[in-house]
Amino acid sequence: MKPKVLHRFLLKAYVGPFLATFFVVEFILVLQFLWKYVDDLVGKGFDTLLILKLMALASVSFVPMALPLAILLATLMTFGNLGEFFELTAIKSGGISLWRFMRPLTGLTLVWVVFAFFFSNNILPVVNLKFQTLLYDIREQRPALSIQAGVYYNGIDGYSIHVGKKDDDGKTLRQITIYDHSERRGNTKYVYAKRGEMESVANNHYLVLKLYDGFVYQEIQPKAGDKAVLPAMKMEFKEQQVGFDLSAFRFSRTQESTFKDVYTMLTVQQLSTNIDSLKIQRKNRISEVAGFQNKYYAIVADSNLGTVKTTARSVFQWEAMVPDSFHVLVLQDAKNGVSSVKSYTSMLLRDLEYQQNNISAHLVERHKKFTLSVACLVLFLIGAPLGAIIKKGGFGMPMLFSILFFLVYHVTSMIGEKMAESGKVQPWQGMWLATFLLLPVGLILMIRANTDTGGLKSLFKRKK
Fold first, then answer.
1. Same domain for 270 and 123
2. Rg of the chain over CA atoms, in angstroms?
3. Which residues, in sequence order, are bridge partners of residue 242?
4. 405 burial level (CB within 10 Å; 0-12, 13-18, 19+)
C-alpha cells in the first residue's frame, strides 16, 4: 500500500473522532460554566441574545483547554480502533513502522500547536476582555423587579414593599404596605392602601403605584436637643401616586478599557513590556526601602533587599544631657518613633511582596501561552502509542485513559501555577512542570509501541 493512501486513510479515521470529541468537550465545559453561574443569570430579565452571546464568548475562551483533550481522546480512539481490528498489525507487517505511519498526524498536531499559540496570543486576550466584561456586568446586574404576594420586596433602594394579594392581571395589588427607609432613620414612614395599580412609565425607567383608600404615617424628626418630643403625622387619602426610580435595574455595560490592563487580557509582547516596567518599578522601590532603612537602622540584614552599604552609628549617653524629669517622656517619644518606623517599613515590604507577586503573575501568564500549545503535542505523543498498545476503540477505554492523563496534566499544571504565583518556585519551573512530567511518559510509550514490547498488561508487569 502506498504511503499517500495510508496517510489519507489515517487522516480520514482521525478527523471524525477529533471533531466529535472537540465539540463534546466544548459542550461539557459550557454546561459546567452555566452550572457555576446559573444564580447570576436567572431572574434578572436578560434576553436570549445576551445569554447566547455570553455562551459563545465562554465557548471560545474554553478552546485552549478543549483542544489538547480532544487531541488526546481522538488519537487514542483512532489508534485504538486500528489496533482492535488488526489494521495496525497489517501495516506493521508491511514494513511500515509506527513512527512513519504517524507522520501525517504528527504534522497535523504541529499545525494545531502553532494554531493554539496564535489563538492564545492573539484571539484569546480579546475574547477574555469581552467575556470578563460582560460576565462582570451580568453578575452586578440586579434581579428583575418582581413584587410577589405575601413576600417583602427589598429590591428598590430605601423601600420595603409588602403586598397581601396580587390579582391575575399582574398589576392590581391588594393590602399594600410601603416602608420608606430613604431618610436612613428606620421605619419612621410607611404607607398603607387597600388597593393599588402598578405600571411602568418612561420606557420602564420608573414604577408608579396608584394607591386607593389608605393612609400615610410619618414620625417627624424632632428639633435638636428636644428628644423628649416625638411628633408624628397621619394623613388619610382616597387616591395617591407613589413613584420609584428603576434606573438601578437597567442593564448597563462597563467600558472594556476598565479591564484591558489585566494580565490575562494581554499578548506575549504586551506581557513582556509590562514585566520590564514592573521590574524597574520594583528595583526603584527596593532602593527606596534600602535608603529608608539605612536612615533609621544601623544594621540592615535582609537578603531580599540585596546588598546595602551601612555605616556604624555613634551612641551617646543621652541620660546625662536630659533632666531626670524628662526621661520618661523621651523614652516614650523614642518608642513611638520606633513603632512608626517599624510600621512604615512593614508597609514597604508588603508593597515589595505585592510587586513581586504581580511580576510572577505576568510571567505565569506568558509561559501559559506556550505550555497550552505544547500540551497538544505532549498529549498526542501519549495518545497515539497508548492507543496502539491498548488496542481498544470506541469511547470506553480511550475515554478512561484520556480523562486520567488529562487530569494528571491539568492538576499538575494547576499545582505548578499556584506554586509559581506564590513564589515557591520560579514561574518557568511551575508552568512547565506538567510538560516535564508527561513528556518522558509519552516518549517511553512511543518506544514500546514502535518496538512491539507488549500490550497493556505488560505496562504494569514487573520484570523478574
1. yes
2. 35
3. 209
4. buried
Place of cell 442593564: 251
CB crowding 85-103: b at 16 or more within 10 Å, else e: eeebeebeeeeeebeebbe
- Tens-digit pLDDT profile for residues 412-461: 888 988 888 887 888 888 899 988 998 998 888 888 877 766 554 555 45
CA distance 91 to 70: 25
CA end-to-end distance (rounded Å), the chain: 41
pLDDT in tens, 119-150: 999 999 999 888 888 888 887 776 666 788 88
* 342 shares its domain with 315: yes
Total domains, the chain: 2
Return the DSSP state at 222.
P
Q: Which of 197, 218, 249 is the last residue of a domain?
A: 249
Distances (CA, A) of 104 to 44, 108, 189, 314, 335: 50, 6, 78, 78, 76
Q: Which of 155, 322, 310, 314 is nearest to 245 (CA)?
A: 155
